[in-house]
Design a protein that fits this description.
Elements lengths: L3 H11 L8 H11 L8 H7 L40 H7 L1 H15 L4 E6 L10 H6 L7 H12 L3 E5 L11 E2 L5 E5 L2 E6 L10 E6 L3 E10 L2 E8 L2 E8 L8 H17 L6 E7 L25 H13 L1 E3 L12 E3 L4 E3 L2 E6 L6 E7 L10 E7 H8 L18 H4 L1 H24 L4 H19 L18 H19 L4 H42 L3 H12 L3
Parallel strand pairs: 1-2, 9-10
Antiparallel strand pairs: 1-16, 2-6, 3-4, 4-5, 5-6, 7-8, 8-9, 10-14, 11-14, 12-13, 15-16
Helix pairs in contact: 8-9, 12-13, 14-15, 15-16
Length: 563
């Protein structure tokens, strides 16, 4: 690996169930895995690392599939050190493969928060594969960064990730083509859509990688090497996700204005069905400290000074009703790009979302775990699905429909006129069907099916359905004058309370009167219910005293229902 931080991150995503308790164990781990690093010996390694001890339960407990098995003569109490010997490592890994998969599956499930949709932005710097010559000289970086990135996104539970500056130019550089010349199937349930780089004025292309399971009805719009967007139905909500890559401060003002004019034009072209707009990307902007003039588009966090790109970004957000979500959550770190000369971090990547749904965002943070050999770090944004549905007032899907009531066939016994009407309707319908069937050659089975469907259709039209009997309200007496008077008083106060448009004190007094009236109605209902129960109990007792089983069960059916 190119440095200790990258090595620790590599162990974090590839690491295993052992614990590294000293620098010697960590260095042995490097040799056991067969990784070539810049440290020539253990002494040079110790001079570079500041910490003397790495506790595994804090940093390095993960599934380590490339290292050697633990030794039986373990000198550490309760710890399994990683050593340089790699004998029988393959057999040991085969035996523990099932356990490792279970552990990894649990970790992945814990990362994917329930009811949350994750959007991320990560300036990947490049997604091109290394040539053989560069791969030999730079053994720390994998040949295919895309495969590593997909694995990290899957582990972190990211649904959509925008990738400014992937530098992809040709088809087939990574993954498998999906038919579209600029669409790649990356495997593990993700698909990459990219707008190719032209290398004109720092134009290095943009891309969006999405998880296939979370979206449908997708449409892709490739505007230029600096802007693209996809529209799709994400978890039942139509969203438009943009991936911008703004010019840096080194570019002229004309180029910056051209980019934002193009961006504004695309925002106006988005169809009305896309109720949520998300613009996660690298804006190369510093928006400065909080100012009341921009309170509609940003929060109180993130400080510093505002540059020209930052001013253009704030104006763009104000024009398109977007909010910069990085600024609404207090975090320890906000920097997304590392300046190597000064060693400082600056916030250049931002997550924007429509102002109308900003309350649905539950978190927005810098995610250092998405580390894939770049001078940028990722920013992810979590959207609460349930809260978003409430804000947009989306009806719940798959709501069970109430079952239709059964037909009341007992009416056929008592109502002769109903039987006559059904017979006439059947005669008319069958004469029409027989005249049509005489012209066609129809089998006997089809005739039987046709006859049953006709009878069912006419029965549903003519025969009434059973009435629903509510036994729980049988105690309520509608003719009780006292109860009706109390309910009229309560309804009068309720109407006045709803239509009141005066002072707050007047509405509060009406609310108290309404509460008192409701309390009187409730007390009267309770008294009526108790009287009903006492009367039924007396009738049941009288029926039992007279040995009248029929009368007893009639009262039982009246109180508790036929069930």
């Amino acid at each position: 690996m190119k440095n200790v931080r990258s090595f620790s991150h590599w162990i974090k995503y590839k690491g295993g169930l052992w614990q590294i308790s000293s620098l010697q164990d960590a260095y042995s781990c490097i040799n056991a895995a067969g990784i070539t690093v810049k440290y020539q010996n253990f002494a040079e390694y110790c001079q570079t690392v500041k910490n003397d001890v790495w506790w595994a339960h804090r940093k390095l407990i993960r599934r380590f599939s490339l290292t050697a098995p633990p030794l039986s003569n373990n000198k550490y109490s309760g710890l399994n050190p990683i050593v340089a010997s790699s004998e029988d490592s393959s057999s040991w890994n085969v035996e523990n493969n099932k356990n490792n998969k279970k552990v990894l599956r649990k970790e992945i499930c814990s990362k994917q928060e329930k009811g949350v949709e994750k959007h991320a932005c990560y300036n990947i710097t490049t997604l091109n594969k290394l040539s053989e010559k560069r791969a030999r000289s730079n053994k720390a970086r994998p040949v295919d960064k895309l495969a590593v990135l997909v694995e990290i996104l899957k582990e972190e539970g990211v649904d959509v990730c925008t990738l400014p500056e992937p530098r992809l130019k040709e088809l087939g550089m990574n993954g498998e083509s999906k038919g579209d010349s600029n669409t790649l199937i990356t495997g593990q349930g993700y698909t990459l859509y990219f707008s190719p780089a032209t290398n004109i004025n720092g134009d290095n292309g943009v891309a969006i990688i999405v998880r296939n399971a979370c979206l449908t009805d997708i449409e892709v719009h490739r505007v230029s090497g600096r802007l693209m967007w996809i529209g799709a139905k994400f978890n039942g909500v139509y969203k438009a996700v943009f991936c911008p890559y703004a010019p840096t401060e080194m570019h002229s003002r004309v180029e910056k204005l051209k980019f934002y004019d193009e961006f504004n034009a695309e925002m106006l072209k988005v169809p009305a069905k896309y109720t949520v707009k998300i613009c996660n990307g690298d804006y190369n902007a510093r928006i400065g400290k909080y100012n009341n003039d921009w309170s509609d588009v940003r929060g109180r966090f993130i400080t510093g000074f505002c540059n020209e790109n930052g001013q253009l970004l704030l104006e763009f957000c104000l024009r398109n009703q977007l909010c910069i979500m990085n600024t609404y959550f207090q975090k320890k770190h906000y920097g997304t790009w590392h300046h190597h000369r000064s060693g400082k971090w600056f916030t250049l990547d931002y997550c924007l979302i429509s102002k109308s749904v900003k309350n649905a965002v539950s978190n927005c943070r810098v995610n250092t775990k998405i580390d894939c050999w770049s001078d940028h770090v990722a920013v992810d944004m979590s959207i609460n699905k349930a809260k978003l549905s409430r804000i947009l007032k989306i009806p719940k899907e798959n709501k069970p429909k109430p079952k239709p009531r059964k037909l009341d066939y007992s009416k056929l016994r008592s109502e002769r006129e109903l039987c006559v009407n059904i017979g006439k309707a059947l005669d008319l319908r069958l004469t029409k069907e027989l005249s049509v069937e005489a012209r066609q050659d129809i089998s006997s089975e089809q005739c039987i099916l046709k006859l049953t469907s006709i009878i069912q259709e006419i029965s549903e039209k003519c025969i009434p359905r059973k009435e629903r009997t509510d036994h729980s309200k049988s105690w309520f007496d509608v003719n009780d004058i006292k109860m009706m008077g109390l309910m009229d008083i309560r309804n009068g106060y309720l109407k006045r309370y709803r239509e009141h448009s005066g002072t707050k004190a007047g509405k509060e007094s009406l609310r108290l009167l309404l509460r008192q009236a409701q309390a009187h109605v409730t007390a009267a209902c309770n008294k009526m219910y108790l009287g009903h129960i006492e009367a039924e109990a007396d009738s049941m007792k009288n029926a039992l005293d007279k040995s009248g089983a029929i009368g007893y069960y009639e009262v039982m059916d009246k109180v508790f229902g036929s069930k």
